Amino acid sequence: MKNCSSNAIKEIDDSTLQGIIIVQNCPCESRYANNATRMAAVSSEVTAQLNAYMDQTHGEKVDYKCSVIAVSGNATDTVFHYTCIVPLSDHPRAMAGMQQCCTNQQVIHSSISTILSL
Length: 118
What we know:
The protein is an alpha+beta fold. The protein has one domain: Alpha-Beta Plaits (2-Layer Sandwich), CATH 3.30.70. Helices cover 46% and strands 25% of the residues. It has 4 helices and 4 strands. A 4-stranded antiparallel sheet has the order 1-2-4-3. The protein is elongated. The two termini are 21 Å apart.
């Protein structure tokens, strides 16, 4: 995983945040781009990690939904573009959580195990 800066996460509107996760040494863009099951697995893991972050760091039990909306890449890396539905009042905290997802090894392991199992 490649660390992402706060510039990699932005507000789209009052209820939507958008981010990217770069998985290094994974030239698997074509395996994800046209496979809804694989994209859903990554979406589910990002959702779980963000919700766990909110609970562990802020004591908030939330159910924010994240969805991978596009996948791009090159011969070495894959980039997941995703959105999360988050109320405006929680944007700053959720953005910090989304930065944690960029470096969370569970997200990368989920992505790779999805490739191997499908």
